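User: Assemble these into one structure.

Assistant: Restating your components, then the assembled model:
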Amino acid sequence: MHTYRKLMTKIGIHAILIVTLIAVIFPVYYAITMATHTHRDAYAFPPKLIPGKQFFQNVKEAWRRIAMTTLLKNSLIIAITVAFGKIVFSIAAAFAFTHFNFRGNWILFPLTMVTQMMPLPVRVIPLYRMMAQLNWLNSYKALTVPYLASTTGIILFRQFYMTVPVELADAARVDGATPLQYLWKILLPLSWINVAALLVIEFIYMWNEYLWPNIAITSSKMRIAQMGLRMLYTSERGVAEWNIIMAGTLIIMLPPLIVLILFRKQFSEGIAMQTTK
Amino acid sequence: MKKVLNRTFLLVLVLTLSFASLVNAEVVEVEFWHGFSGARLEVLEKIVADFNALNPKQQIRTMLYGTYEEGLARFLAAHPVKQEPALIGLYEGAMGAIHDSGMIIPAYQIPEKVGVEWDFGQYVRPIVTYYSRDGNLWSWPMASSTAMIYYNADHLREAGLDPDSPPTSWDELHEYGLALIEAGVVKHALAFGWPDWMFENQLALHNLEYCNEGNGREGHPTEVSWPNEFTDKLLTKWGDMAADGVWTYGGVEYDANGAFQSGELTFLMQSTSSLDGILRTVGDDFEVRTTFLPRLSEEYTRGNTLIGGSSLYVSNQATQEELEVIFEFYKYLARPEVDIYWHQNTGYFPSTNAALQRLMDGGWFTESRNHLTAFLQILSGKTDSHAAAGMKLGMFVQAREWNRDAIEKVSRGEDQRKALQYSADQVNKLLAEYNEFIQN
Amino acid sequence: MDRFPKHRVLPYGLIFPSISIIAIFLIYPFGQAIYQSFHRINPVRRQLVNVGWRNYVDMFQSSEYLNSFRNSFIFGVIVIGLGLAISLGIALLTTQRIRGAAIYQIAFIWTYAMSPIIAGVMWSLMFDPSIGLMTHVVGNLTGYWINFFNDTVAAFILVSVASIWVMLGYNITFFVAGLQNVPHELREAASIDGANTWQVFWIITFPMLSPTVVFLLFVNTIYAFFQSFGLIDVITMGGPSRATEFLIYKIYRDGFGRMQEGQAAAQSVVLFIIIAIVGAIQIYTSTRSAVYER
């Protein structure tokens, strides 16, 4: 009786999980089938849920309409620059906050914490003016520099470095290592997992960023993937070319998905380490 | 010897480079911000590419700014820090604000500035009227459209209605809709694109002003004219049609086009600029026809439908060289073949009488009667009243939003008078605030 | 703290990049926003006019703002509450001792890679009033035809569901990570002692999960208040009748579309204060729990 109940519970769990999984995956499945249809089939009623044969034509068409090459290139450049830049900057800052006693330390760290609460959207309008004055609109600078300071990153690495035993640093100092040598040779190797997890988080964050780029960029040469998708969506929606829209959507969601799948283990482990602290 | 050779080489290199940069310096590039997306964008790109190929030293570089609203906001924010484009295409909603901004050179002054005479009489009259201020043209006509009804002729046949006599009044439209639903052809018969603009169009079509101060054409308006007896009748009608399921709210801008194209609606009120997109999408699925916007009742005199779309403005910070490029571009756009290409591929009006004449002579309008509808509509309307010319106000974007708000409420069955009065109060408040600023 | 006492200049060099960016691109513009919030900007000629507290007074008297405030709050509660509850439920199930648990965990993670724009596009197709599959399914089952173009409730629910969907992967990943730190033995010991599953959850699992919950609460708050922008911009553009014009979207519309920068700046300041309060609570609770652990 007991084992029977246990079995039923297990079957129940599987059933719930499978049903939710289907519900969660369905929008993407629907998008994929749409992307394989001809225009006429894409808005046919009842909707055709069996994939059609137009996938590559649709991808090609979406690619051409929003000049996908440029979009992907720009998005890759900014996402990679920001992800790496954030990590370098936040490691440096976290290292300073945890390993040195310097004047202003007491105010600067809380300051970085406070700024976490003024996310970009809140200061978008003055920022636009500022960028215009700097002549930075329509440039990679506008899309990367304001993002480079990461309070999340600083906090994350700070927390990690605080748990590293003091003896390590003392031993390194006695051995005559400079602080940067210590950071590079001892501290960093200990935090690769955190670095990888943060890389994934920041890459995805930046790839998906929309509000600020949408304001700072007007040039078609500087446009990024999310803006392109938004354009494809609004311009094709009038003619209901869901097949083209979805083909474009699938291409644009691919890079962050690949990053997430490739670094899945590091991402989960990095997060696991994070939550234990 | 080797050294000498090297030096000569270097010298040659330096000379070529500086010469190259000299040549480059002669190229004047004009930034052109616009809001054309979708099928229209491709047509525009083609025209600009042809223009650029014609004269390599005068180049137009197009940049899409997003929605029309964003375009206006960006221009106004960029101008004080000199980051604005020399040339920008803005929609009708930007007209009041941009005229008041003092940031542009009025279109009629441009030929003079480049030392040429230019005959503005060559442009189609109602279009020029719309973009004029005190009789002078303030922005260059480019992508002008108006609203009309698109209908699915097959649906009418299915319901036993005559596709050759489409509805001409709201009452008829209502009846047709009921018949179509009764016959089981559609679930809903009608939707609008740009619902706020349809409201504005109805006022203009019945020769009624939208706001005071001569519809904003004689000064800065202080009050909107609605709600009034006419809007009571109109919105009550819309409310009834919504209650009967005849009219369904189809979203903003071009959202409703999809439903029409997939055959779920019989009637679509939309800008003429959707014509080519719709015809291409629908193909042979059903017969698309077009007709005039419906009238409410003949007790009101006929005004005209409104011009919409976008027209071109020039920044007053543009250099003389840029002005010359822009004027060349304007002249290029006025060439009948370019104008015709634009019209035939987008559905926007051709702007010049010459192009219109050529289209008529070539039999284009008999070949494609749908392209003629909007023309007949605006040419048969008034051009001598402020009401028919269309309103002008600085806070247009917001006025529209408030107006749309009321229409959405009506579509949900709320009290039309209350809804519209609330919106009117908000708009009047905004107008007062705007005027306070302008007077200072 | 001071592990390298002889280096006086180096720490400044190390923090300089981050601090200067924070100062230039975060604090300075925010300061400007505060300044602007006491002004109105002539929409067309751009001069600033000092209006004192008028922007703030008007804001709290404007029924649109109060609506937006209320809607954002409801939206936040739904997205954060329901989103976290669902993710926790899934995470709990996938950490049971069942076959394929790891596969389930992977299968749920991917929505994290979806951008708000992508979520918006996909969900607006599902519920497209004319051809959306879900519109037809719901319509045929219940006789109610959803039209999110003018149905305020439908639009609101649609935006909420899409928002929850995007955040599922992220939330589940964090919950799974947190749950894996709860020793199985502890839970089993408790159930042997006669506690039922529900009691085990509340007495053992949930308290140990609280750092994760606090962290996710903050991240989801930021998400609901800020990141949802793209989603709204795609699906509803704040409509119908401003039902989905949440605080951040209103700031954007007022500042950029409606040309009321001063008023938008005042709203920015208020939004900052709201988020700062939430953040302060988070910092307070997380440092407190950290103390407990040590």
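The mean pLDDT of chain A is 86.
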